[in-house]
Amino acid sequence: MALSLRTVEPVQGASWVRDGFRLFAKHPLPFTLMFVVFLAAAVLSSALPFVGGVAMLAAMPMLSLGFMVAAESALQGGPIHPGQFISPLRGDARRRRSLLILCGAYAAVMLAILVLGHWVDDGGFEKLQHLLADGAPQEQIDALISEPGFAGGVLVRFGLISVASVPFWHAPALVHWGAQGPGQALFSSALAVWRCKGAFVVYTMVWSVLVALFGVLSALLFGLLGMRQMVGLVALPAGLIFSTAFYVSLLFTFNDSFGGSGAGSPGG
User: Which end of the chain is more exposed for a tag (fewer CB within 10 A), N or C?
Assistant: First the structure.
């Protein structure tokens, strides 16, 4: 279908978050099931050293596109199911090849960033994850964080990942709905994010504030009730809801940036 590059006002970034939650609230179970299925696949793939991790990195573009396909289907009164993660690959050979190239490119870029970050902090970020998982004392965690290179490694990882996400943000959808090749899709995505950068800044800020606000309020509430141990339990389902609603909202960033995937807005 024909797509046209558009520019939106910064305030539209907040609308993307709102529309994502609104559509998720209408179909919470099927959307959540999709995300749970992906998480289960991630856990199973982790049993394969290195290969499993690379496979999950390569699957990330299909995760975002699958949710966009499901969100479009939901807006049109259609079904929502995990099969939509792979349904775009069932199209014509040219689109399938372009999507697979994007998946491979994304895995290669992310792997390079992770290797660079590991080199900068000498594996400090991975050590932190193990310490947190093992429930290590706070003193041990603080000592690791204060080590030279740790902050640099974190900045390299998250800084470069943020930059790399720009060309890949809309690229799978541009291949699927716009029939663009991998190179053109990456360029078009980067250009669209740049032209709508104000909206994406607001979008990022709203998500950050929502997550932080939930963490603070839940800690205060359970602290007052003397049930601090409940904070961790509540964080799990909350994280699942926030993550799923985020992926649902991706369709609205695409619709406003390129004139729509064929679906409308939940708000009409």
Answer: C
What's the chain look like in SS3? Answer: CCCCCCCCCCCHHHHHHHHHHHHHHHCHHHHHHHHHHHHHHHHHHCCCCCHHHHHHHHHHHHHHHHHHHHHHHHHCCCCCCHHHHCHHHHCCHHHHHHHHHHHHHHHHHHHHHHHHHHHHHCCHHHHHHHHHHHCCCHHHHHHHHCCCCHHHHHHHHHHHHHHHHHHHHCHHHHHHHHCCCHHHHHHHHHHHHHHCHHHHHHHHHHHHHHHHHHHHHHHHHHHHCCCCCHHHHHHHHHHHHHHHHHHHHHHHHHHHHHCCCCCCCCCC
pTM: 0.88
pLDDT over 70 percentage in the chain: 94
Instruction: Tell me the Cα Rg of the chain.
Output: 20
Q: What is the pLDDT of residue 126?
A: 80
State whether the Cα torsion 83-86-87-88 is positive or negative. Answer: positive
Please report which confidence band the pLDDT of residue 122 belongs to, taking 50, 70 and 90 as the band edges: confident
Q: What sign for the dihedral angle of Cα 181, 246, 248, 52?
A: positive
The pLDDT mean for the chain works out to 89
Amino acid at 194: W
CA 112, CA 40: separation in Å to the nearest integer? 25
Provide the pLDDT for residue 177.
Answer: 94
pLDDT over 90 for what percent of the chain? Answer: 63
